[in-house]
Each structure stands twice: as structure tokens, then as C-alpha cells.
């Protein structure tokens, strides 16, 4: 569901936060279920450190079939988009349905933003690793 382009009759401002949270969780669960069901060909065949300057955290992620690499890139992009559009009232590691946004504290929100940031960095590094792989050297 496209929460940004919802019709004016059911705009995100008039929808309940619980409904938006449920849709976000449902989409996240569906994508994770799809990714977990991929065959072994979609898993990296090699992960090696890069030889670039000042890149201590980057690795080359090799996949044997180009379409698998493209699919994996798309999945990591989708994870970043989901994280960027995560409803602000969902706390990390909260039970479903999520906590009410009024019960969150400043500490909870900081924890949420740090968790989201860490996950975005992880997916970004996976994307860079896939892009750094050298198919000409294989």
C-alpha cells in the first residue's frame, strides 16, 4: 500500500496510527518472508575485504548470477525505504501492535532513530558491496 499517495478520503492524517502501523508491519513481514524464501543462488558466494583507501567497513559481496545481484540490491533498497518511512510511533523491539506514541519517551525515540540509522548503514554497505564486486575478475 502506498501510504504517501493514499486517496484524500483516507489520507494518512485521518487514518489511525494503528492502521498505518499494521500496514507497515504487514509489508515488512511480506518482504522478509519473500527474502527468506529465496534459493541459495541469491546468497553471496564470496565476501572479501575491499582494497580501497580508508574503507575499513566495506566488503565486496559476490553473487554468481547477475540477476540475483540485481534482486538483492532491490531488496536492500526496499529495506532502506521501509526504514525511512517507518511510522514514528513504532518503537524498536516492541510487541505487535506497537506502543502508543504518547507513551514513548525521548530515550525511546533516540533509541529508535539510532536503530534505524544502524540498519540503514547495514543495508547501504550491502548495496555498496554488491556494486564493488568485480565481475570482470571472476
Structure commentary:
With 138 residues, the chain is mostly helical. Helix content is 48%, strand content 6%. It contains three helices and two strands. The chain has helices at residues 17-36, 66-84, 106-132, and strands spanning 46-49, 59-62. The protein has a two-stranded antiparallel ribbon with strand order 1-2. Helix 2 runs antiparallel to helix 3 (106-132). The protein is flat and about 50 Å long. The model is unreliable at 94-98 (pLDDT under 50).
Going across the biggest sheet, name each strand in turn.
1-2
Unreliable runs, pLDDT <50, ≥5 residues? Answer: 94-98
Global mean pLDDT:
78
Total helical segments: 3
Structural class: mainly alpha
Structural Rg = 18 Å
Instruction: Outline the biggest β-sheet.
Output: 2 strands, antiparallel
Summarize the structure.
This protein is mainly alpha-helical and 138 residues long. It is built from three helices and two strands; from the N terminus they run αββαα.
SSE blueprint:
Blueprint lengths: L16 H20 L9 E4 L9 E4 L3 H19 L21 H27 L6
Antiparallel strand pairs: 1-2
Helix pairs in contact: 2-3
Considering the chains and any ligands shown, give keywords for the structure.
mainly alpha; 6% strand; 138 residues
Amino acid at each position: 500500500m502506498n501510504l504517501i499517495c493514499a486517496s484524500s478520503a483516507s489520507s494518512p492524517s485521518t487514518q489511525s496510527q494503528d492502521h498505518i502501523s499494521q500496514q507497515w508491519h504487514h509489508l515488512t513481514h511480506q518482504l522478509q518472508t519473500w527474502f527468506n524464501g529465496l534459493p541459495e543462488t541469491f546468497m553471496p558466494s564470496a565476501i572479501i575485504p575491499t582494497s580501497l583507501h580508508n574503507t575499513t567497513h566495506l566488503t565486496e559481496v559476490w553473487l554468481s548470477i547477475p540477476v540475483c545481484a540485481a534482486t538483492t540490491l532491490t531488496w536492500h533498497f526496499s529495506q532502506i525505504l521501509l526504514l525511512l518511512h517507518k511510522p514514528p510511533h513504532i518503537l524498536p523491539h516492541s510487541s505487535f501492535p506497537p506502543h502508543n506514541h504518547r507513551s514513548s519517551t525521548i530515550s525511546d525515540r533516540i533509541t529508535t532513530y539510532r536503530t534505524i540509522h544502524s540498519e540503514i548503514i547495514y543495508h547501504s554497505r550491502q548495496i555498496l558491496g554488491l556494486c564493488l564486486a568485480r565481475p570482470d575478475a571472476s
